[in-house]
Each structure stands twice: as C-alpha cells, then as structure tokens.
Amino acid sequence: FKQKTAYEIKECDWSSDVCSSDLTKPNAKIYLLYPNRTNGVQSLNVSGKTFKVNIVNCRLSPKARINEHLFWILLLVLLQRIIPIRPVRNVIIRSNRWLRTLDKADFVGEIRGGDSFSDIYGLRRFLLGIIPCLVAILMRKNLVMLPQTYGPFKSRIARAIARFIMLRSHRIFARDRESIALVRKLLGHKSKDKIIEFCPDIAFTLEVALPEEPDIQPKLDRSNSAPLIGVNISGLLYVGGFTRNNMFGLGVDYKEFVHVMLEQLMEQTSAHILLVPHVFWGGAEGDESLVCRELRVLMGAKYADRLHLIMQEYDQSQVKGIIGLCDFFIGSRMHSCIAALSQCIPTVGLAYSNKFRGVFETVG
Question: What is the per-residue burial (b if ≥16 Cβ within 10 Å, else e) of 106-129?
Fold first, then answer.
C-alpha cells in the first residue's frame, strides 16, 4: 500500500516463495488465458512503463473455431491425459495454442476477474469458469489460486467441485479472513497440508491515472466548497441479476432504492453527485453508463446542475482517478469501492453478497 498509515494489513506472509522479491521477473512473458473473440497483444502501463501482455483466447460460441472452443480444449487435455504414449500426447498439446501456452508456463494463476470463486452468479457460470482450472490441473501444472473471495456455495455440486479444485491447487490466496475460514472448513483435515494465506485484493495497488480534463457534464467546479459524492450504480443489480428476477435476493427493489437514495442526497445535502459507471459494455451485466443517464433523466431538471455524468469510456486506472476526486463514495460494485478505499475516501458499500463485509474488514 502506498498509504501505509491508512491501512494495517496483518498476518500476510510476504516471505512466502510466491510473493518473494527473489522471484520478481521484470522480463517475464505474461499470457492472459480467458474468453475473448480473438487472440492478440494488449499494452499495459505500470509505473510509467509499457508492458505487452499476450491474449490467448477461448470461446463458447457455436460459431467459434474448433481449436478455440473451450469444450474442445477440455476434450484435448483429457485425451492427452489418458493416452500413455508421450509423443502422441506432445502432438496433442502442440496442436492447440491454449495447451501449448499452459505447457510452457512456469506459473499458472487463477483469479476469476479478481472477484469470487462461488456460484452466487449461477451454477452455469461457475461450472464454465472452472474449466480452465481443470485444464491446468489435468496438465499437472501447479495452480495458484490468486486473491479472491471463496464461497458461498449454494449447491452441493459447486461445493464438491470447489473442494476438488482447491485440494489440487498448489497454493490458495484469499482476499478476506472469512474466505480463509471457509476454505479450511471445506477442506477439513486436509487443509493442514495446504498453504492458505491472506493477500489483499490486487485492485488496492491499481495505479491512478486521472485524465487531464475528465469529460464530465455538467463540469465539476472544484473551487466549490460543496462536497462531491461519488455513486456507483450496478447495472447487474439494476436489471435484477442475470435471471432478471432479483437473483441475489435483495430485500429492496434496487431500482427504486437508488432513485430514492439520490433524491434524499439531493434534498438533504448541498452535495454534488457524480454517477460513476464501472462496466461500460452491454450484454448480461448492462452498460452502467446508460443506467446513469437513465437515472439523470428520472431525476429531472430540478437537480440537473448538481448531478454529474461521466460522458466517455475510460480505462480502469482513469476511472479510479476520477473516483479519487470524490469526498465520499457509495458503491454497488466491489472494485469501485476498493478504488475509493485505496485512496482513503470514506466509502459505503451497497452489498449484495458477503464478499463486501470480508473485504471491508481487511481495511478496518
């Protein structure tokens, strides 16, 4: 942490061989293996330096090329596992880019978008998400579970599969104490043989890159003494989850709640409010920039001069920089809250799962 006085993260064994500075490899080649339409190379700016990250894609679409389909990759790895003839196994591995990349990897980490190893988003999503883990395990790679929340597991199937993966993981890092307890309970007496450690969510270290002139309308007047409250509205919660039917079992109507919350903030304070989208694409999770615009229309002209919108898409570091302009923050997306917390901004999380409590507790 850069703000060392703001946070005390204890009991994290930074001397472990995975975290050790002796293993810092500035020239390492990084490959991201995840569902994407295409392969390619992506640029990543860290500490003023530009790094190239290789994208190795897989797909689930029936229109996908066979060699990129996730189920085909799983079938190939099963074949190479059961065939006893090494030259044949090597041919199978070389025939597929995903398998070739895994085969050469010195380190294989699993992070699930830095969020949750859980079936709270639905059993289907969980099952599809664990296939890359199974591929790595079947290839006898040392799989490291990177910092994330573990559980809850609503179904016995998810619980059994999670236990299977964890038992075969080389090391397990959790971003909150509750997850460590859950993993130990899930593994039972076998947890004594596993390295299970706490590590803060990696988004705490995400760099800030505030745009020189953020495209915010109406423009923010920072000379104004009125506080600025940042509000992140979750597009996923706004549409009722993936099922569109309150899949997280919220005790209130989320749409109505955020509208009433915004009205009360406007009526009872002199604050300006900045609506902060966290997801800019459409699809199942909804484009949150469109949700923000809809809310501004619903609020009407009465508060138009105090309700601000981000008018263009920014990357993760730029959004974090914009969040850093706020004096107070209210977020429905976990990582929007972390963007605020890591900049010492008082933050309220609108929680839809236990993961919020666990991560908030790690910073007191």
Answer: eebbbebebbbbbbbbeeeebeeb
Q: What is the pLDDT of residue 139?
A: 95
Structure tokens that stand for 253 in this block: 């109507």
Main-chain phi, psi angles of 138, to 5 degrees: -65, -25
Amino acid making up residue 248: F
Pick from 292, 304, 339, 313: which is nearest to 211 by CA? 313
282: which residues sit within 8 A by CB, 6+ positions away? 290
Q: How far apart are CA 165 and CA 249, in angstroms?
A: 28
What is the predicted pLDDT for the residue at 8? 41
- Give the global pTM: 0.85
Nearest to residue 149, comparing CAs of 364, 356, 363?
A: 356
Q: Which residues contact 289 (CB under 8 A, 6 or more apart)?
A: 277, 280, 309, 310, 313
3-state secondary structure of 274: strand
pLDDT at 17 over 70: no
Distances in whole angstroms, Cα of residue 32 to Cα of each of 148, 209, 294: 17, 23, 35
pLDDT at 6: 40
231-242 core/surface letters (b: 16 or more CB in 10 A; e: else): bbbbbbbbbbbe
Asked if 304 contacts 242 with a C-beta cutoff of 8 angstroms, the reply is no
Average pLDDT over residues 326-331: 97
